[in-house]
Write a structure and sequence with these properties.
The chain is an alpha+beta fold and 58 residues long. The chain contains one helix and five strands; from the N terminus they run ββαβββ. The chain starts with 5 loop residues before the first strand and ends in a 5-residue tail after the last strand.
Length: 58
């Protein structure tokens, strides 16, 4: 399985990918870029696709 090196303008580190694979989620991360900058946690769904989790607070 492969993961993108960047997601919404933010570089994904090996540590972030490792956490996603082991725990299926990350802590809230800053520095994503959309229409305006945003922070969110990442989750890994059943199909191993990365999703934004805007429900999780910092």
């Amino acid at each position: 399985m492969t993961f993108p090196k960047r997601l919404a303008g933010k570089a994904l580190t090996q540590n972030m990918i490792k956490t996603l694979c082991e725990k299926k989620r990350t802590r809230v991360l800053k520095g994503f870029k959309g229409k305006k900058p945003f922070s969110t946690a990442l989750t890994l769904d059943e199909e191993y696709k990365i999703k934004f989790d805007f429900k999780t607070k910092a």
